[in-house]
Amino acid sequence: MDRGDVARWLSEYVEAWRSYDPEAIGALFSDDVRYRYHPYDEPVEGRQSVVESWLGEGAHEGASERDADGTYDAAYEPVAVDGEVAVATGSSAYTKEPGGPIDRIYHNCFVMRFDGDGRCAEFTEWFMERPGA
To answer: What is the band of 108 on the pLDDT scale with cuts at 50, 70, 90?
Structure first.
């Protein structure tokens, strides 16, 4: 993986989140992915389980609720890429209703490991809310 590959993957990640399209979500991850919403969580294991957790289906510890259409946006960029491992940072912004004022902003850090096909095999997220956003 190089910086461009990771940037493309991050763009596809945001688009999959915006669409909640199961195929787009699944295409991001390896069959045996280990996905953590927080660094201290037990991982959600396997592509299908990650897709379910994104869609708010099943009981997946640490998973957030599905966001309402048009109430969120995000942008992330790679800051370090070393072979199959990458670190990205960015932010996500939320509104209470589509087109409304920004209600919350989170700063994010992702640590990812990719397989040989460019799919994410390990994903861990750290985030914190910006005070007074």
So the answer is: very high
CATH number of the domain within which 110 lies: 3.10.450.50
Residue with tokens 């309402």: 68
* CB neighbours of residue 112 within 10 Å: 24
Domain, as residue range, for 115: 3-57+69-127
Helices (runs of H) and strands (runs of E) counted in the chain: 3, 6
Give the total number of structural domains in the chain: 1
The verdict on residue 47 lying in a domain is yes
When pLDDT is cut at 50, 70 and 90, the band that residue 133 belongs to is low
Which token pair is 45?
């294991």
Q: What is the pTM of this model?
A: 0.92
Burial class (CB in 10 A: 0-12, 13-18, 19+), 4: exposed
